[in-house]
Amino acid sequence: MMTVMNHSNRQPIRLLGDWFIVARGWLERLPLSLIQLAMRIAIGAVFFKSGLLKINSWEFAIKLFEEEYKVPLLDPVLAARLATFNELTFPMLLFLGLAARLATLPLLGLLAVIQTFIYPQAWTEHLLWASILIFLLSRGPGSLSVDFLVEQLCSKGGKRQQG
Q1: What integer is the mean pLDDT of 12-26?
Q2: Nearest Cα to Cα of residue 129 among 45, 30, 19, 18
């Protein structure tokens, strides 16, 4: 009798285990390039929205840098200009996947300044952003990017010259 109960108890667990294996197989088919595209859009949007807020209310942005952000060693107007430039320029490159690895570097620098001097208590959010940026830096923007197209064109051009 004990064996029947054990057998009947194991059956749902085995079915559940099989379900997880099948589900994992389906999830593994999700193209990495889609995940990389989503990451580029998501992290780019965070910075781009911040840049738009600054440019749309420039006087308020200057006040923030003077009174709240107080970045050391930089004039508040210069700091606001640098931050706004970074937030409006490099996310556009991420969206396109154009020079995407290089575009992560100024954003990581900006993030380091924000984490160190402005909002150190927001480290969990910054860790998430940094993780996405470091993933894109180390793995690239994926096949749904201008970088990928350029790489493909260059590699085909190189093969033609060799042949």
Answers
A1: 84
A2: 45
Report field, pTM of the whole predicted structure over 0.85: no
Q: Which residues have CB under 8 Å from 47's CB, separation 6+?
A: 86, 87, 90, 91, 107, 110
Q: Which tokens go with 52?
A: 């738009």
Which whole number is the average pLDDT over 87-112? 98
Spatial neighbors of 118 by CB under 8 A, at least 6 apart, are 68, 69, 70, 71
pLDDT-derived band at 50 (thresholds 50, 70, 90) equals very high
Q: Which amino acid is at 69?
A: Y
Residue with tokens 């209310």: 57
pLDDT in tens, 117-126: 999 999 999 9
DSSP string, 61-109: HHHHIIIII--TTS-HHHHHHHHHHHHHHHHHHHHHTSSHHHHHHHHHH
| Domain locations along the chain | 1-29, 31-162
3-class SS of residue 119: coil
Burial bucket for residue 141 (CB in 10 Å: 0-12, 13-18, 19+): buried
d(CA 99, CA 114): 23
Between CA 61 and CA 84 the distance in angstroms is 9
Asked if residue 113 has pLDDT above 90, the reply is yes
